[in-house]
Amino acid sequence: MAMSKILKFVKYAFKNHPIITNSLVYGTLFVGAEFSQQTVSKKVLAETPAPYDTPTISRYALYGTTMQGPFLTVWYRWLDRKFVGTSAKIVVQKLLLDQFLMTPQILIVFYVAMSIMERKKDIFEECREKIIPTFKTSCMFWLPAQSINFMLIPPPFRVVYVGTCSFAWVNILCWLKRQEY
Question: How do the residues of the chain divide into helix, strand and coil, expressed in percent and rounded to 5?
Fold first, then answer.
C-alpha cells in the first residue's frame, strides 16, 4: 500500500512539477556521483584515508540542482516537442543536436561555474585546458546513452534517465576535472 502511494506521488510530481522534481533528482545524482568519486579516491584507493571534501560536494549539489536539472528539463521538453517520434531519422537529429549543439555549452558552463564557485582568478583557464578531452570523452559516453534515451525512454522520465547516466558520467567528469593538462 505504501509503495503505491509513493509511486502515485512520484508520477504526480513529475507531471505537475517537472522542473522542481527533475532538479532535486538531478542534484541528488550529481552529489551521489561526486561523493562516490571521493569515496574511491579518498577512502578506497588512498594509502592514507582523507576526509571528504564537503565544499566540493556542495558545489556539485548547487550546480546539479540549480543549473543542470532545470536546464535539462527545459531542453528535453523543447527537443521532444520539436522532434516527435523514435524513428531513426528523429533519433539521429536529436542525437546530433544534443551532442554537438548543447553538450559543448553544458561543458563550458560546468567548467566556468565550478571555477567561479572555486574563486579561481581565471575562470576560463580550466575550461580552455579541458574542454576538448572532456568533449571527446562525452561523445564516447553520451552518444550510445542518448540513443537509448531517445528511442526507449518516455519523455517525462528523460531527465531522470539522463541523471542516472550522469551518475556514471559525473564520476568521469570529476576524474577529468582533477587531471592536469
Answer: 85, 0, 15
